[in-house]
DNA sequence: AGTGTTAGTATCAAAGTGATACGAACAATA
DNA sequence: TATTGTTCGTATCACTTTGATACTAACACT
């Protein structure tokens, strides 16, 4: 895809996709949220080829969703930690998951519970201002004019 | 990617990604939500090669996010409409957009307003049960055991 | 008859992906 | 000291996907 970046494209979705618009990147972010940090953990968890993994980790690091940290000096070893931007990707993951749960829900599914209440988490998207569920109210789109 | 489908994989995110885990599909869904229905509208809006577009529309149709409808008999013409599953993808789009707005927000951005209140929509993900923002409370993950 | 519109298909070079083998830099064990 | 193991990759190369471009089918319109 022509990754026509940042300030050109007025669509925030396009911009996000140029950063993490492929399945591997999203799965890496998922695993990072699950606590994985190391090359081999990611590789084994996803069954991804090491070449792919190297490239995806590098991109996510360049784009500021992960950061590399040296955790051992002597065999020089790095691990990958979520940055704030990476952590803020969690709502996206949950909404993707919510869709999958609803429309591809056959068989056994991983579940997420609120640790405090013990209830299963049901992620929905709402407008923080009005409190209304996204998609339930009419909206108006304003596209900025070029230049 | 090895699109290891449905009932095998317990992760709802993986399952969603095997359906719409590439940038073109997500952009098509975005445009479909914006009201586009026809081949040439999509093609011009995204600058996608017709071969790609044909394939992606076919996949999204097979997977049940779009449906083909004949809108003209005599030059036989079809258009693509969102199904319920496709419409339910909107929260995903909004959360992806919200991330882009926050972390790739330079320059002019498309905006969405609540038609009733006139306020700009600020999409956030919450747990419908507790009302807490996703990511603000500790959670417990339950992975089903195999077989 | 000629031009325009819509929804594609055909072709093919270029780029991306995936599987596998291998390498570097050590630690631990025999 | 030699061997094996661990971790984080790189090298190679066959295979697949993509993207650009040209073209076709089936009409309508002038």
Automatic annotation (TrEMBL), chains A, B:
The keyword Transcription applies. Residues 11-108 form the HTH hxlR-type domain. Signal peptide: none annotated. Gene3D superfamilies: Winged helix-like DNA-binding domain superfamily/Winged helix DNA-binding domain (1.10.10.10). One of its GO terms (molecular function) is DNA binding. InterPro entries: HTH_HxlR, WH-like_DNA-bd_sf, WH_DNA-bd_sf. Pfam families: HxlR. It comes from the Bacteria. Keywords: DNA-binding, Transcription, Transcription regulation. This is Transcriptional regulator. It comes from Aquitalea palustris.
